[in-house]
Amino acid sequence: MKPAASVLLLTTATGFGFGLLAWLGAYSMLGLLPGHARVLVAAGVATSLLFASFGLGASMFHLERKERAWRAFSQWRSSWLSREGVAAVLTYPVAIAFAAVFWRDGPVIETRLLGATALVASLGTVYCTAMIYASLKPIRQWHNRHTAADYLLYAVFSGAVLFATLRTMDLGAPGATASAAAATAAGIALIAKRAYWRHIDAQTPLATLAAAIGLPKGIEARPLDAPHFTENFILRQMGFAIARRHAVKLRRIVLVVGFALPLALSILAGLTLAPMATTTLAVACTGVGLLLERWLFFAEATHVSAVYYGRRI
Amino acid sequence: MTMLPERAPGAKKLGLVIDLDTCVGCHACAVNCKEWNTGGEAGILPDYDKYGPEPDGVWFNRIHSYETDGQGCSRTVNVPRSCLHCEDALCVTVCPTGASYKRVQDGIVLVDTDKCIGCQLCSWACPYGARELDEEAGVMRKCTLCIDRIYDEHLPPAEREPACVATCPSRARHFGDLADPDSKVSKLVKERGGVDLLAGLGYRPTNKYLPPRRATIPTAPAKPPAPGGKGIGAALLGLLDKALSR
């Protein structure tokens, strides 16, 4: 599948934003935020909505008819894309109410409840995004049990790294809990990514060419003539393929930059070794690494319709 | 609405039956489809770089040719590929705007180009590669089963069929109601063992494909080898035959 910049930015940035909101919500829900954390909550919610808005704004560039985007909120009964839009829009007022009430009242039962709601709303939105991909049956690398879990994990991980940076700005250090959470999330995300790659490497193509054209068993088919001499929309979108050797290299870079470095940097920050520098660097590494990870998520995905053109699926 | 409609009892299931045995791969169906749909109610079917080195455009129907082995001989199988108007059309349910829909009365899957936002998710959801982006209008386009022909009462009844079916010179394309077990198309599917493409994915396509039949061309039995004589004359002739056959 062709990786489109708009979609890579959408999923990565909303992952950061809603992941951060989830952590703020979780901390509040569990009563881990003291009264003086109101600046942290306000700045954190603002940051999370900024990231989410950037991502949602980027997604607009994927639409050919942006002026009709409002129509995408209508089909939430069947479409995960529509549900994502609805969930994202519902998350905003929850987040703003959470920050406003916390600013006024600090850690009270209302803010604990609002925090819990923000947690559910933000992760719910990420889940909807993931299900857009996970529900597409023609793409075996997406239509599996890994996709939704992985998107949630990467959102929680990138949010944790961002949360640790904000706490460092607020308190001078991320604190043991936040840095441990970031490091743990990075470790789990790394394991999940490796498990995903193992899974897709072990898959078999969804169909053979012979089955795709309805031939009885025992008959083999090879492409002879394509419909047209030039590329078309289907081939540009679904026929995108990445060279195997490039994928291997990029996977290594993702593991190191996207997961291992943020893990190490989060531990260093937890040990109060230049926490401002280490947490900021961890965010930068996570951002670059996850963008590359998302690029691979698309580039390595194959669409069954490409089989009609004799392409690898 | 992009929820798939509940099929009403007695509702039609209009579709195509395509005979892979008799399709000659002439592309006439694709050409007539393009001609009809670029000038019909659906408006222009765009072409890009028309006279340049990389011409491209939207086609509702594309014809592939394959070479097959395994029936005792190698043969060419031509496969016209277009929207199959699936019963479980994922392209419809993924649509966020309601632009993509399946008609209750006949099962035809259509795009309302006034509502489409061009997110292209439906093209990702279709395993058959049947939906293409109109890069000029910014909306998705697909086979309409020539809905502006099949119901047009100004046309003589015999012409109320999709353009691809009307033009096929080898009569490899058939149009009809696949919900009616007594229709011509249903009988054809039954007689010839019509199949669903990519049946394993579970889209339950309406269009059916008739697999190529095993070639049984009667040929005269091979002649027994000429009785070879004995003696030096025959041996010399044999040598000569060998030398000349090289």
Describe this structure in words.
The complex is a heterodimer of chains A (313) and B (246). Chain A has two domains: 1-135; 160-313, no CATH class. Chain A is an all-alpha fold and 313 residues long. The model of chain A has no long low-confidence stretch (mean pLDDT 96). Chain A is 69% helix and 2% strand. In chain A, helix 5 (145-171) runs antiparallel to helix 6 (176-202). Chain B is of the alpha+beta class and 246 residues long. Chain B has a single domain (14-210), classed as Alpha-Beta Plaits (2-Layer Sandwich). Chain B has helices spanning 28-39, 90-93, 121-125, 147-150, 163-167, 184-192, 232-245, and strands spanning 14-19, 47-48, 56-57, 62-69, 75-81, 100-102, 109-111, 132-134, 139-141, 173-177, 208-210. In chain B, strands 10-1-11 form a three-stranded mixed sheet. In chain B, strand 2 and strand 3 form a beta hairpin. The chains are: A mainly alpha (313), B alpha+beta (246). At the A-B interface, helix 3, helix 7, strand 1 and helix 8 of A face strand 3, strand 4, strand 5, helix 2 and helix 3 of B. Strand 1 (220-225) of chain A pairs antiparallel with strand 4 of chain B, so a sheet runs across the interface.
